[in-house]
Amino acid sequence: MPARPGGWLLLLWLLAATASSCIRPMTARQVVLFVDQRLDTVQDWEAVVRVRSAATAPEDELVVRQWWSRPGRYRCQYLHPQEVAGQVTVYDGETLWHYDPGTGRVVYFAPHQVPRGPQGEVAFPQWLLRRLQEGRVELRGTDRVEEYDCYLLECRWDQELYRVWVDRASWFPVRWECFDEEGILLFAVTVTQLEYNLELEGRLFVPEFPAATEVVEGGLGFRQVELHQVREWVGFEPRLPAFLPPGVEMTGVYVMGEGEDLAVVINYQGPWLSFSLTESRRKPGPLPEGLRTVDYRGRTYRVIESEGATVLSWVGGELEFALLGDGGLQELLRIAASVP
What is the dihedral of CA 40, 70, 125, 76, to 10 degrees? Predict the structure, then answer.
């Protein structure tokens, strides 16, 4: 005898209920795994990115349109605020170019002069993924950001708290906020109009500027030297950190500037951390005000934290030091404290 229609409906309902009871809810680590898998497949992307720091008024937040392509080429077109609107930065994988239509000038940095630090990662945050992988991460539910339905993650990494919104459709982080140990917002980044794997044309990453544009070399007179040559260039012996995280090695030594403004810049690179240490003679006058300070192992550091990078500066005897890196505050403090 054929089953009655009501019996079929009951059977389907039971099967659906059984299946749903076997599906485990999404976990924070699963979300992070999907983000990792997505970023690994991305060859290029285009997006509009808004960046706000603790020192920036909402109306002055930085807005840029960005294009990125493997293995690390990128282009930034600045949209807001007004004083930078129209400026363009292009990195072709070797040379970085910055065009300011207000001055009619292009400043370029040769390969050995390209400033160290996170490059092209404002909306392609590999450094953020590493924090999610290494930190204590929790899933706080779902939320909506701009046009995206998202999973909301919270991550404790070092002394910092990150809140990260991951688009449930693309598995891209589309917003992230960073707070210090006192709960003060350090920076916030929001990604909109995101498209990826577009097969972007190579000409996007080739600098093209008006014919009358003045082209000047940047880098403040960077010269690559050997470590033993530094003293004859700057007049003092460089101080090196006694502590380096595992796998970190010195990758280059440079002398920067002219005359009384000479400084030495020493670059270090590791599998999960890169930083540069700048040393120069102390200038007369008061130290800059308005910066956050941190006391660590008997020394006071001025701290600037922004998206993906931290700067520590301090005075030691007749020298001034600045440590710029992407490893987080506590790791950089350990390195800085080991500098004699």
Answer: -150
